[in-house]
């Protein structure tokens, strides 16, 4: 009796699945991808015939499936990559039918908990949101992941490399990505307030201090009244700290003089850069909220010169802004700083001002989620270093600098207390 009932259930399931496959909505991601391409008009007309994309092959990858597509001649991969959200939304559309692999039924233990196990399968399928990654190398590669990227990557000191000038940018599906300042030397950072931009800058400063305490120095320009970088002002590695936009020009002039002195230092010995000369010193110019100096032509001219000539001298600029526009990221600065990191933004135009393409506006509203561009774009979750962790890691390097009035008072006190003898006059 039990065998007959089981056979009936299985046969009914197979019949139902076959019906849905033929008459219902698409039931796997490959079919959905082809349907999305067709419905979105991503086709080419050639000699009166409509050329569509076709899936060349697919393979299992960790956490999902990769689909390799052959694009018809004349179809731009860039247009598809910029409309990544169309594919992602299409793959996440739910219907009254449940999209799941029937093979999951084989995992069910047929006992009193069988019904609950089935409900859990259905629930998990409904909750999980798929994410995709796109790449083009002659073939369009669409990687579909069954689970989203982690919402938070907690800081670990293991993220630091023992040698060099590489700082962790964030984790993607393949693991941690590092930004090597000795190779890429500069960085533009942008993002809506509250989504990780300033926290990322704090992490960079802390990481560099931990890795290279004796060889790194900073010029910190915090144009948010010092709200972010004040904690670093008394670090022995901080050479200059400024919060007044009116004084930034003087600060950058000092940086330029130091950079010129470094050039003279290695050129006189016949070298072309600090790496070749074996000079370990590196100087970072980190600006938070650069929009406040973007209209100062002299400041931008100085910053552009530092960005253009700084690599050979070991002077590395990091320029950040909350509201990226063509004004807040001047074209001369942008062209001399090719690597970018953008957290979520409010429009495709803002994204294009940072990354030269759309995408940052479609990032989920998750603090720390960003797009890192170094030739190609990588969606990452940046490491989260809490305020307490920052304080703990930089504390050993803090050097308290007394104020002038305090220093004078201390000096006067020492003078008074050090007088052991009084001068006496005697009549002779």
Helix/sheet category: alpha/beta
Main sheet summary: 8 strands, mixed
Q: Architecture of the largest domain, CATH level 2? A: 3-Layer(aba) Sandwich
Q: Count structural domains.
A: 2
**Mean pLDDT, all residues:** 84
CATH superfamily of the largest domain: P-loop containing nucleotide triphosphate hydrolases
The global form is globular
The proportion of residues forming helix, as a percent range, comes to: 25-40%
Radius of gyration: 30 Å
Poorly predicted regions are: 1-24, 415-423
CATH topology of the largest domain: Rossmann fold
Helix tally equals 14
CATH class of the largest domain, named Alpha Beta
In short:
The chain is α/β, with parallel strands linked by helices. 37% of the residues lie in helices and 22% in strands.
Write the layout of secondary structure elements.
Elements: H1 2-23, H2 29-39, E1 44-46, E2 49-51, E3 54-61, E4 64-70, H3 77-82, H4 84-91, H5 114-127, E5 131-136, E6 140-145, E7 153-154, E8 166-172, E9 175-180, H6 181-184, E10 187-190, H7 197-211, E11 216-222, E12 238-242, H8 248-267, H9 274-277, E13 282-288, H10 297-313, E14 315-321, H11 331-336, E15 340-343, H12 348-355, E16 369-374, E17 376-381, E18 383-384, H13 387-394, H14 404-417
Parallel strand pairs: 7-18, 10-14, 10-15, 11-12, 11-13, 13-14
Antiparallel strand pairs: 1-2, 3-4, 4-6, 5-6, 8-9, 15-16, 16-17
